[in-house]
Design brief:
The protein is an alpha/beta fold and 212 residues long. The chain is 48% helix and 18% strand.
Length: 212
């Protein structure tokens, strides 16, 4: 069985950044969950800060070049995606949005995506629902139910309430993504077979409704 290709897109601007830190924790948690499903992971990280100039050129020319072309291919060919952005002015960063503008409209069709974000305060957490989730829904991705937001206070040292809650959200979102990427053996095929076995022709259903 081939390893699952998991791509992490992170739009942090500083180095190091809390956005990259959150991305790494989500990737590791997902890898751990997939190991429980008996699946290996081939992990790739796309740092958008390193592609900013190429992204700007692509928006002007319409042609991704060099490392941007490689990043686009990685995301397009991925089995699953973890996308993490800092929140500026109550929405995703311009760099984050510009990268997804570069992708082909069909690149994320049916692809499982875990959306996450970082921000200075918890007030920015709503951006996950009013900005990120609609973006990926428009691109026809399958977004996991749990989106993960990390505010500055969530990075507390030790077993603080914020850090414990963040760890719980990370684990829950990773488990949801792993379930989409690697359903338990036999569950999906057998479900499909049962659905096909129970399919009754429409004419037969109409006949059954006629009075005897």
């Amino acid at each position: 069985m081939n390893p699952l290709r998991l791509v992490v897109v992170t739009a942090g601007l500083s180095q190091p950044s809390s956005t990259r830190l959150l991305a790494d924790r989500l990737a590791e948690a997902t890898r751990h969950e997939l190991a429980g499903h008996g699946r290996e992971v081939e992990l790739h990280v796309v740092e958008l800060r390193d592609l900013a100039v190429d992204i700007a050129h692509n928006l002007l020319t319409g042609f991704p070049a060099g490392k941007l072309r490689e990043a686009v291919d990685l995301v397009t060919d991925a089995d699953g995606l973890i996308a993490v952005t800092p929140i500026f002015s109550a929405s995703y960063s311009g760099l984050f949005k510009s990268f997804f503008d570069v992708l082909d409209q069909q690149a994320l069709n049916g692809k499982p995506v875990l959306a996450a974000a970082t921000g200075g305060t918890a007030r920015h957490s709503l951006a996950l629902e009013h900005a990120l989730r609609p973006l990926f829904a428009y691109l026809h991705a399958v977004v996991v139910p749990t989106a993960v937001f990390a505010a500055s206070e969530d990075w507390g040292s030790g077993a603080t309430v914020g850090s414990e809650e963040l760890a719980h959200r990370i684990d829950r979102a990773a488990a949801e993504l792993a379930t989409l990427l690697a359903p338990r053996p036999g569950t999906e095929p057998s479900g499909q077979q049962d659905a096909e076995a129970e399919l009754i022709p429409f004419a037969q259903q109409l006949a059954a409704l006629q009075p005897r």
